[in-house]
Write a structure and sequence with these properties.
The structure is a homodimer. By secondary structure, chain A is of the alpha/beta class. Helices cover 42% and strands 13% of the residues of chain A. In chain A, strand 3, helix 4 and strand 4 form a beta-alpha-beta unit. Chain A is globular and about 50 Å long. Chains A and B meet through helix 8, helix 9 and helix 10 of A and helix 8, helix 9 and helix 10 of B.
C-alpha cells in the first residue's frame, strides 16, 4: 500500500449500478469486484445499505461485503443512508462506511428523506453504534459532504456552511469527511479553495478524499486541483457509469480508466495495471450489454511506448 | 483585448472541417465565423492553404480570410503547409500564419511530404517572403511544433530535440512557436516540463500558445498544467470536431464550449459569452446534420446560478 501515491476508490458497483436500469447479477458483481481488485484497485465501494424496494439493484450488498472482505488487501467501502444501514454495514464487516450529508437540505430530503438536523443526529448515532461494536478498530466512518460545490435544486451552496458542517461531523466523532461534487458543478478554483478551508478547520488528515463528477467534462481538470492541494483518495467509476439519480441532469462519474491513465502518465503510482483495468472494462461491458460505458482511453488505446514511459 | 486573461483560438473551421466528410458551404462558414467572433472569440483559424485536391473542404480559404479580416477585433489565422501556401496567406492579409513542423519526421512526410531539413528551409523561405511583403508589420509567423508529445507512428519524441527545433525556428526568424499535441499523448507533467524547457531556451514571450487534443480525455487536465506554467493562448474546436487525419487514432480537439466553461468558472476572463457560444454550436450543428458534435456542457447545461458566479 505504501508504494501508492494515489488511492483510487472504485465506486462503480455502488454509484454506477444504482443509476442504471440493468440489474447485474450477484455473481457478475463478485466477478467484477474480484477482477478489479486483482488489477490493483485498493478500495471498492461495493454497495449501499438502502431498502431493496428503493434500489433493487443493490439488494445484495450484504453478500457482496462478506465476499469482498475475503479478498486480500482490498478496502471494502459501503454507503449507508442512516443508522439502520450503518448497523448492517458494521455487522457485515465493511471497512469503510460513508454517510452522505447533503449540504443542500432540499437534496438531502430527496436523497435520504432527512433534514440537516436529522442527519447530524444520525452521525452521532452511527459513531455510537461503531464504538459499541467489535469491529470498531477496523471500521472507518466517513461523512460525505454531498452537493458541496452547488446543487441543481438550490444553486450555490454557502462555502462557510460546508466548512462548518465538515467541522461538525468531525466534532461528533466521524473519522473523516470527503468532498463530493454530486452535481458536476465544481471548478478547480473552488476545489482548491474549499479543500484549503476545510483542511484549515479540521486538519488535512481528516479529509484526504474527493468524489468528482464529469457531468460538464471538468472531472480531470478538477483532479489536477485536488492533486495540487494534497488530496490522495480519488473516487471514480469504471466506464464512468453512475451519478446521482435524485439530482436532475447530474450524471457521469469520472471514468476510472481515464483517471488512472492520467495519474500513471504523470508518474504518480496508483498500483493499478492499465491493461488489466481495460480488461475489467470489457468484462463489465459484457454483463451490461444494454448500457453505454464512457471514457476516452479505452476507445483511443494506450499511446505507443506508454508502458515503457510509466515503468 | 486587454481585459482577457486567456485567448481562445478557435480552430474548428480549419482543424474541424478538414477532418470530417461533410463539406460546409462558404456561406455557412462565414456565418459560423461571424457568429463566433460576435460571441467574443478573439482568434479564429479560418482555413488552410493546401491544394484543393487534397482537402476540398478548405478550398475556399482565400475567400474566408478576406471575409474574416473585415470583422472588427478578430485575429484571423491560417495554416500553411509550405512557402506557396504562405504566399497566398500573405496576399490575402491573414494576421497569423502557422506552419506545422512535425517533430516526427515520419509524420512530417505523411502530413506535408517534407523531411525535417526541407521544413527548416521552408521556415527561412517564409520568413523572407513575409519580410518582403507590405503586410509584414501585421503578420505573425508561428511555427507549430506538431507531435511534440509523441507520435502514433514513431512513439516517444526526444524532448531535447523538440526544444532544439523550437530554438531553430526562432533563430531563423519565426515570431513564435506553439506546442501541439497532435496525437493526444500529452500528460500534464510533460506539458509543464516541455513548456519550461522551451521557455528557458527561447523566452516565454516566444511561446504563449498550445494546441491540445482530447483523444484520451486528458485535454482539460493538460490545460490546467498549461495555465499553471503561464501559457495564455489555447486552441480548441467548437463541438470538439477535428484532429489530424494523417495520424491514425488521433481524433478530438478540446471542445471550445467545455474549455470556456472551465476558464470562466475559474474566474479567468476569455471575453466569450457562454450563452452566445452555445447558440453558435446549435447553428453549426444545423449546417452539419451528419456530424456528431462532442462536449459535455452543451448536454448538461450551465449550472444554476452560473452567470451570477462568473459575473
Amino acid at each position: 500500500m505504501s508504494t501508492r501515491d494515489i488511492e483510487i476508490s472504485e465506486v462503480g458497483p455502488r454509484d454506477g449500478l444504482q443509476s442504471i436500469d440493468s440489474i447485474m447479477s450477484t455473481a457478475d458483481k463478485k466477478a467484477w469486484i474480484k477482477a478489479q481488485a486483482e488489477a490493483g484497485t485498493p478500495e471498492i465501494e461495493v454497495g449501499s445499505f438502502v431498502p431493496a424496494k428503493l434500489l433493487p439493484q443493490l439488494a445484495d450488498t450484504a453478500e457482496l461485503v462478506e465476499y469482498a472482505t475475503g479478498i486480500p488487501d482490498l478496502n471494502v467501502a459501503v454507503l449507508v443512508p442512516n443508522l439502520f444501514g450503518a448497523k448492517r454495514a458494521i455487522e457485515t464487516g465493511a471497512h469503510k462506511i460513508t454517510l452522505p450529508f447533503s449540504l443542500s437540505e432540499t437534496h438531502s430530503m430527496k436523497n435520504v428523506r432527512r433534514t440537516h438536523a436529522q442527519v447530524i443526529d444520525e452521525i452521532s448515532n452511527i459513531v455510537a453504534a461503531i464504538s459499541e461494536s467489535e469491529n470498531r478498530d477496523n471500521t472507518v466512518f466517513e461523512v460525505g459532504l454531498s452537493t458541496a460545490f452547488g446543487c441543481t435544486l438550490e444553486g450555490a451552496i454557502d462555502e462557510d456552511f460546508v466548512v462548518a458542517m465538515a467541522a461538525k461531523a468531525i466534532e461528533l466523532g466521524a473519522d473523516e469527511v470527503g468532498l463530493s461534487d454530486t452535481t458536476g458543478y465544481a471548478n478547480p478554483t473552488q476545489v482548491t479553495r474549499l479543500t484549503k478551508a476545510i483542511h484549515h478547520e479540521i486538519g488535512a488528515d481528516k479529509m484526504t478524499g474527493i468524489h468528482l463528477h464529469n457531468t460538464r467534462g471538468q472531472g480531470l481538470a478538477n483532479v489536477m486541483a485536488a492533486l495540487e492541494v494534497g488530496l490522495t483518495t480519488l473516487d471514480s467509476s469504471l466506464g464512468g457509469i453512475g451519478g446521482c439519480p435524485f439530482a436532475p441532469g447530474a450524471s457521469g462519474n469520472i471514468v476510472t480508466e481515464d483517471l488512472v491513465f492520467l495519474l500513471e502518465a504523470m508518474g504518480l503510482k496508483t498500483g493499478i495495471d492499465m491493461d488489466k483495468l481495460l480488461a475489467v472494462r470489457e468484462q463489465v461491458q459484457k454483463t451490461l450489454p444494454e448500457e453505454e460505458l464512457y471514457g476516452f482511453v479505452a476507445a483511443a488505446g494506450l499511446p505507443k511506448d506508454f508502458e515503457a514511459a510509466s515503468a
